[in-house]
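Hey, I'm writing a tutorial for new members on how sequence and structure tokens pair up, and I'd like a real worked example in the thread rather than a made-up one. If someone can provide the structure for the chain below, I'll link this post from the tutorial.
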Amino acid sequence: MKAIRSARRQRGSEVVEFAISATLLFILLFGIIEFSVALFDKATLTNASREGARTGILYRPEPRDNASENAAIEQAIRNYAEQFLISLGGPAQMEITIERPNGGTLQSGDSLVVTVDYPYQFLLLPGFIGTLGNVLELNATTVMRAE
């Protein structure tokens, strides 16, 4: 009889233990998912900056127009990013920086530097953990020589 009363008192403890364990499990699970998506987006940005740099170092006959080349580089980056970037908040808001030596036209042997900055917005984690903030700044830089 005494064992039956003791068992009845402990029934609620299983639910409390599950609630504590499940909360930690879900935070860990969503953390793994969030940071996996962030790492995938980082790799995507790196590839997008490479695509832009490849577009920028293509041979073009003289006279070269920096404005139209910059537009082609930015379009190549945006096309790649829109195709592969995981951005659930709408289109990606990227900042693209293109640097040429001495600000002039690209000559054979010069290096072209393409930098892409992207504010990755967390999906779920900031709601659970307030110290993370809502945005993680991801960036990728590619340097290629014109041949």
